[in-house]
Structures are given as C-alpha cells and as structure tokens.
Amino acid sequence: MNQRPTLQDALLTVDDRVATLTLNRDDVRNELTGTRLIDDIEETVHWINRDERVSVLVITGSGKAFSAGGNIKHMLARQSSFAGDVYEVQARYRSGIQRIPLALSRIDVPTIAAINGPAIGAGFDLACMCDIRLASDVAVMAESFVNIGIVPGDGGVWFLQRLVGQQRAAELCFTGRSVSASEALALGLVLEVVSPEELMTRASELARSIAAKPPQALRLTKRLMKGAQRMEFPEFLDVCAAFQGMCHNTQDHLEAVGAMLEKREPRFAGR
Length: 271
What we know:
Blueprint: E1 10-15, E2 18-23, H1 37-50, E3 56-61, H2 72-77, H3 86-95, H4 99-106, E4 111-115, E5 119-120, H5 122-128, E6 132-136, E7 140-142, H6 156-164, H7 166-175, E8 178-180, H8 181-187, E9 192-194, H9 199-211, H10 215-228, H11 233-248, H12 251-262
Parallel strand pairs: 2-3, 3-4, 4-6, 5-7, 6-9
Antiparallel strand pairs: 1-2, 7-8
C-alpha cells in the first residue's frame, strides 16, 4: 500500500477509487509558478501511478479561480521562475512548469478538469492536459500568453491543437482572447457546462461512472489513448493486441461477461 503524498498547496481526497486534487491557493488565484502546486501535481501523479486503488483523478480549484497560471508580478520583477539570463530562464521552465505536462502525460488513469472559475494561461493549459473538461458557467478561459509578450512555455499549444484543430488553436493563441464557458462548449474545449453549485457533483458523478469500470482495462485504455498520439498505426495495432491479451486473462473480464449474461451488477476486484 503506497502512502498518500503530503502536499503543500493542494488538497487530496480519495473516495471510492476517485481521487480529487484541489488547488488550494485561492489567495493567489491558484497560480502555478509562485506556489508549490507544481510539486503537488507531480507528486499526486506519481502516487496514483503506483496505487491501483485509484481509477480517476479530478482536478479543480478552491475559491473563485481554477488557476491564474503564472504570476505576472514576478515576471515584471524578474523573480522566481522568470529570473536570470536566457539559459537560466529556460532551465527553470524545464525544471518548473514543464513538469506538469510531463507528469500528466505519464498518468495511467483518466483525468477530469472541473473548471470552477477563470483558467488563464498555464491554468488553461492545465485544464487542456486533462482527458475531459467540465466547466462552471462562470468560468472563462484564455490562451493569453501573447497578451504579455511571451509564448505558451508549458507546452500548451501541443494540447490545444489536438482539442480544437490547428486553425482555431491559432486564433486563440494569436489573439489571446478570453472564451466564455458557453463558447468553450461550442468549440469542443469542454464537455459540459453546469452551474457553479452543480460542478463538483457532476464531476464526481462522471468520475464514479468511469471508476466503476474494470480498473486494469481502464488503465490500459488510457495507455492506448496516449500511445495513439505518437505511434505509427501498425505498431499501435500490435500494442492493442498485446493489451487485449492481457485483458482477456483477467478475472474482471470474466466477471464483466458473466454479469452481463446474468443481467446483474458486476463486482470488479482489479485482477
């Protein structure tokens, strides 16, 4: 049994195979660069990948914001991640904010972003790194880096183009404009928009419906989806066949088939 990580600026709860990570720095709108949230996200992912009792991760923010991304006051003062010469700044990006996309690209379970409020810059990119996004109707989102004369240094463009296509991603990146929750829904950036009061209830409901599936098949499906982004098709089919062989030899597969034929609820053991 893996010990749950001790986090500094986030709260981690686990209920019925669903882990919820709440960014807990409302005092700075859950910014990522001036807090310990990068460490907290990375440690949470590392723990989940070693603990098969977790099947889904939900990420949300405390207070009014999902995440404001980087601290622009630190940028002006050339502090924190933004201090130093060209080499020092790029090194800080690699050892800092870029640890988030690398961690989430390695996570073995489905991820849901519950966007409770503004998701700006790197905060928006964090949401885009998740598999599914649900938004409160008061949420606003922006790929806003160009507005302050920088680029998406956290790799957000890689994710955004895959969500909305090259042309729309280009428009959002080049203008830096804000997108309302309703427009985000129309663009396919988010799956659903609900009231602020319903957001976490809906996120929990969706997470539980996913977590109710056979745990091993769920993690292998997540790995297939990640592999499909970078593998050639013939090699990808080989991996599909190997993973399928693994699934056919699990107890949960036989339990699922048996429950379906017997018209009863399955009882999965993660074996």
